[in-house]
Protein 1
Amino acid sequence: MEAALRQAYEAFGETQAERGVDLGAVEERLRAQRVETPSWGYGNSGTRFAVFPQPGLPRDPFEKLQDAAQVHAHTGICPSVALHIPWDRVDDYGELADYAASLGLRLGAINPNLFQDEEYRLGSVCNPDPAVRRRATDHLLECVEIAGEVKSGVLSLWLADGTNYPGQDSFVERRGRMLECLSEVYGRMPEDMRLLLEYKLFEPAFYHTDLCDWGTALTMCQKLGERALVLVDLGHHAQGVNVEHIVSLLLDEGRLGGFHFNNRKYADDDLIVGSVNPFELFLIYVELLEAEEDPGVRIEYMIDQAHNIEPKIEAMILSVMNLQEAYAKALLVDRRALREARRSGDVLAAHRVLLDAYSADVRPLCARVREDLGASADPVAAFRASGYLERVAEERREGRPAGWG
């Protein structure tokens, strides 16, 4: 650790000791933090209007893993990579898993695609055509098998199903079709596999979305079984929705399965984590921390982003750094003082407890933890200095970059 950074860390430690913070315990929790990055975050992506290609993008799932390994190497907390099927379909998934292991990674959540095939124009598992529903269910079962092959315990499902016009279909009948299809899939999952069901307020359907909020996702999970849990994507809510409140409710119900971390300004923008509303990110972690102390609670922390104009690997690294810092700040909250202020009805004292933790400059702490993990004190600078991007840009000049579809 460089002298200036060491001095900043020591000064930080003195300040926190005065507050009664057990810095050793905080660092232990930070070293144990894990975040899963998505394979699709490393390939070509764009908006409805255009895709802006970049040099050196991966051409297949193996090269996506190479890029993901860079994020893990520089941050120290991203050992797993989510796959998207069919975008990441290969002939031999055992070979892909072995290659991931050779890079110090493992394969994580399997994400089915039920939104791009022409047959899904009127929906997938909610489609009025039983043949289309059968096709969708078979794809989900294929993904269950793939998860087994790569030793993943998570099937992560987002459905684009919905309608564009009033009267187009029956809300109740569509829900029944979804339950029938997902029940078959759930029944075929091994006992150690979990289904994470993701909701989204709108898009691509314009009139209604079949899984539009946490309530519709939760009730579906309750019908399916204990291993069906809700996945929260931070960009999938109406403007002004209190996401940390949703988090606390799902935790209280024992049904919070995971997160897709990103950030938004208006809709599902898939921006770098914490880039627009870092205070919200901090408040979410405040709700999560106590739940993490329960050994029976298992929450999957995953990033879901589409980097349109920013460099893919650097953007992913920055998102992970922002997650580290938000987590660190949440660990600094004086829980005892917070409880006392709440019980006494001291509104501003309770609020100031959170502000005291949020205002702390935790960058020296996170740099120290990353170095303890054998990663980089300054991940973005270290990655830029590594020459990795320039090297793969030359190596990957031929062929077609991987992307959506």
Protein 2
Amino acid sequence: MRWLIFIIFYILIDIYAFQVFRTFSKSIWLNGIYIALSVGVLAVLIYTLTHLDRSNGITIDEMYVLGWFLVFFVPKLILIVFMFGEDIIRVLAGVFSAVSGKESFHLPSRRKFISAIALGIAAVPFASLIYGMYKGKYRYRVLSYELEFDDLPEAFDGYKITQISDVHSGSFDAAEKIAYGIDLINEQQSDVILFTGDLVNNFASEMNEWTPLFSKLKAKDGVYSVLGNHDYGDYADWETQTAKAQNLQDLKELQAKMGWKLLLNEHQWLEKNGQRIALVGVENWGAGFKQAGDIDKASAGLKASDFKVLMSHDPSYWSERLKEDPKNFQLTLSGHTHGMQFGIEIPGFIRWSPVQYRYENWAGIYKEAGRILNVNRGFGYLGYPGRVGIWPEVTVITLKSKALG
């Protein structure tokens, strides 16, 4: 039944969008190509989705099927917005004509002009989605912030943290691009590297070919990590619960092999010149997702006066619990949202992504009640095999003491 509803919806959108082509061009060949592509894309998508093998997870090829579907479908949504608006004007003109007794008019040239404008604008997401799949997903950028705190120990003034998140190694298809991203992280020469979850899509084995690269990540105080919702293997079918548990154990051991310290509802002290800050790591806790995070256990023995950097994969834990916790978690680092891998960000002008309607805190720095949250946009990608406007991110945070000015 759900497929029938989806197909009907798709066909209605397609028929409406097709009117643009018919208005703009009378070529039988162009119209035939449009119909063939529309039917073909829909058929391939339905075949792919109905033959998904959850025991293998979503494959790279299957992600590209989804990507190409979006390439052809999203521009059609743009087309129908324009044509629907033009149709409304025509209907209102007809009603006015009937009521007033004055003859209405219709200019075919006006509809053709609007069709041309619609096609021109629709070409933007068409080209952008293709660019996102083949270039945008590896367009790494470094975002740097200086964050001041009243209670930061003076020895940690100028302390640099590099945060990465959401690797999703099972989606990678270009080793040289990943190697470039790893080098970019190391080039920041931070004191510590923090990874905030989702190393894989489902299976620890996804990291096998990438382990040598990620083992190259180095920082003076080490590399620390937490688990994200995908790391638990909850989105795949398993023959037994034992196999699923072993997969998680394999992922934990793999991180240890890479030289990473995985924090599982626990904390570690970072020391410098006789002073220290606490690095706290919780397991995943998300609204509507796995809730294994236990901040009480992770922060046991810590005082409100201790300076703390907290790693929590899903930013909803910060909004639900952490930002008001009496233990005072001064800085929280999260990921998870990917910025939906699609949006528009022009500093000082606009910052928008569809994911903001799901998450209040979806990308960048947030400050509330004296606490700070950073939501990393992610290193990798999942689902749509690309990024448009929301580029893969390496975050560099420099801690500053207000007392030192």
Protein 3
Amino acid sequence: MRITAVTCVKNEGPFLLEWIAFHRLLGVTDFLFYSNDCADGTDRLLDALQARGIVRHLPNPAEGRNYQMEALKDAKAQDIIAGADWVWVADVDEFLNIHVGDGTIPALIDACGNPQAISVNFQFFANDDVDAYADRPVIEQFTRSHNPDLWCGETAIEVKTLVRADFPLKYYGAHRPFFREKLPKGKRPTWTDASGRPVQHRFLVAANPRRIRRFPAAGSRKFATLNHYALRSLDSYLVKNDRGDVNRENRAFDDTYWRERNDAAWEDTSIQKYLPPLRTEMSALMADAEIATLHAEAVAAHIAKRDELLAQPEYQQMQAQLRAASKLPPQEQALIEALGLEPVT
């Protein structure tokens, strides 16, 4: 089975080897990376991995700001996609945690009855007061999340989707594929959640704009969950924030994104079953001296960027604000205040 993972990256160098090694354990056979404007050596590490036949690395073709969608449009025409049995579109902070069989994508596909698409709900893992970046597996460091059935007062949680080669594809989206609006009912794809149940009709046909990329998570994760480490350490979050192009000058920093993903009420260490083989796979990649050197350079660049940012007053303020921020999402905080209840600490 050929399974191709597609992702877009910018300054993700310290995290590449873990993500590649992890997905190789899942059964991913091919990787298509698009990069843009990297300043930490991400592109050089990907070039070295490409030279060894481990990944395919292309410059992001976007001419404007729509990097992900332009890359996915380009990916559709690449042979590495055309020759795949399945395509997995995900980001480098997302890890597919499979709970069935041998923990591989083929086992998930079998458990779901081999449909043409499988959508897996996110579970957002909190920072959990981890300040310092450490060159250790992300899946080892962060083990707490929100209740996986409920996020920010919503029962519907975003998904990412595995897509089979014969899906009647119009185009790939970042969260799910789309087919033609007028596709006859008899030709609509078979599509399940990660419990093997058919997805809801309005999600299937993209009828509800608020539910195009999400559906209720309760009961939908029997066979898999998508662990999303959107925050990682506070150090890495500051660097991630700098990577974007939001101009904070003369404007207060908005900590909503952080608070929405920093609910640490739930402990889930189930993904750590992959840790022993992950370490073995990462060690095999790092046994190549050039790969190890480029990884170390990316780590050093990440730390240097953190130090550069924390020399600036606005980033010192951001760091202090995030440390002090409530671990409740703003929606829950507002409800507690409206009901006159004591906030949870």
Protein 4
Amino acid sequence: MAVEDTQPLISHLIELRSRLLRSMVCIITIFLALLYFSNDIYHMVSAPLMDQLPKGASMIATDVASPFLTPIKLTLIVSVFISAPYILYQVWSFIAPALYKHERRLMMPLLFSSTGLFYLGMAFAYFVVFPLAFGFFVKTAPEGILISTDINNYLNFVMALFFAFGVSFEVPVAIILLCWSGVTTPDDLKKKRPYIIVGAFVVGMLLTPPDVFSQTLLAIPMCILFEIGVFFARFYVGKGRKKQSDQDDDDDETRSDEGDEKPSA
């Protein structure tokens, strides 16, 4: 009996290892394909700051190996971001067999929407937040101060913002999952709106670098996305309850059929 119980666990572990290897191969393949363009990728990421710098100012490298290692580091991070849909597909393929049919129907849109929202958050940070934030920082610099940002420090700064905005744009998905699982309801979330708004600014303070400008630019979209998540959660809660009731009815019918068959035997 013990051997039979361990066989499913071993098969799941083998499948998990296989899907992890596939994800790693995808990341490495994309990284090798983009490695030649690593300097161009860094130039594109640094463009929002370079466009705001005054004449005569430029980015600097304080470490000897930074001009070589920093673009490669960025290329690896970009490879992970690009591989995100394939990695999520591997995760979905691993957990999907354990879900009911109605759960798979509800989770599939959330899987695609979560990926799209993460990319949307990164795009919002690049096209909206970076120009505004860097323009604000440059204009408020004390007179006589020449702005020369280290390339490695800049990369750490923008990656933190990319990740913060990507995660914060997942708020609608998180709300839908909480409401669908029965942890809370859209009506309860509406009643707690003032606390959630305060919480959005606290999260913005924790996820972004220590400046009020970035915190506010993160908190405001989170509040808007909260309202969007509450709106769509109503549809998912209704579908989830209906599908669950149908599943329960099917289970009851199955049990009744089994009960009817036993006396005849």
